[in-house]
Amino acid sequence: MAKLRKIILKTLLVFAILLTVFFIYFIFAVQIEVPEIKNDTTLNWKRETIDKEFYKVNNNWLRHSKSGLWELYVEGDGYERGVANGMLTKELHQFQEEAFFRQIQLLVPNLNYLKFLKYFVGYFNRHLPDHITEEYKEEILGISKYASDEYDFIAPKYHRILNYHGAHDIGHALQDKNMTVGCTSFSVWDKKSADGKLLVGRNFDFYSGDDFAKNKIVQFTNPTKGYKFATVTWSGFIGACSGMNDQGLTVTINAAKSSIPTGAATPIALLAREILQYAKNIEEAVAIAKKRDVFIGKYFNWEVLWITKQLV
């Protein structure tokens, strides 16, 4: 009996040591370094109210158009664009994050399971920053400075906004087995369009709740590096689901069948955004796409990149 007791105690001791080691490893593994901004020129920026639902920060502006959509213009380097975006859209961002979190609670009502998912996503995405350019990490940092304090229990602002950019990819992959919808796109040209020019359209054929579908933004971006471009987006999100640059290149992303991801990689929407910003033709777009590892592999079998070129 005494021998059995010793065996049990040794087993429990080994288990406790292993658990402690894993806990220490987990804490270090999920640490994400926040970008360091030297000579921050945005510290004295202020938001001006020009009119009802019309705001400015220097040359950057946000207004609610007659179409019902918001229109946003931002310029500068990554961090400057992010700060301007965050200052201008902070109320919209708070509304968007509330809608997103409520939808998550509907899908996963169990609080303990939600906590488990938080730690799982944190560990799964521990290498996410390695797959995102410094420019885009700084842009996300700028936006995160104006995120709501209400959800700091999930993660610090920068960390959770960064992780939100991978939610699209993981969500599509995990829903793949029961996939019934995927965003649709089309393009026509020559005799198929009224003026013979390229016409591109797309639908957002997914549902994340009525509130999340509100307050869509048409964003016009004038980056310090790369080409000017326009995207359809929402506050807090710098990726591109649909967009066109001033070279006539258009990109949309469309869900397709996939396998389960095994680790973090470049979010597909950030890849589409990089193409819009740095490619002037389809050949350059393909070259950029081939450089990036995405969540399911280099051939985008779960997200079709629809790339077209308008002759301008």
Characterise the protein shown here.
This protein has 312 residues and is an alpha+beta fold. It has two domains: 55-174, Penicillin Amidohydrolase, domain 1 (Orthogonal Bundle); 181-212 and 240-312, no CATH class. 39% of the residues lie in helices and 19% in strands. The strands form two sheets. Strands 1-2-3-4-7-8-9-10-11 form a nine-stranded mixed β-sheet, covered by helices on one side. The protein has a two-stranded antiparallel ribbon with strand order 5-6. Strand 1 and strand 2 form a beta hairpin. The N and C termini lie far apart (87 Å). The model is unreliable at 296-304 (pLDDT under 50).
Strand content: 15-25%
Order of the strands making up the biggest sheet = 1-2-3-4-7-8-9-10-11
Annotated CATH architecture of the largest domain? Orthogonal Bundle
What is the total tally of β strands? Answer: 11
Largest sheet properties: 9 strands, mixed
Structural class: alpha+beta
Radius of gyration: 22 Å
Name of the CATH class of the largest domain: Mainly Alpha
Low-confidence runs:
296-304
Give the terminus-to-terminus CA distance: 87 Å
Helical percentage: 25-40%
Total domain count: 2
Principal-axes geometry comes out as globular
Q: Secondary-structure element order, as H and E?
A: HEEEEHHHHEEEEEEHHE
CATH fold-level topology of the largest domain: Penicillin Amidohydrolase, domain 1
- Give the rounded overall mean pLDDT: 80
Number of helices: 7
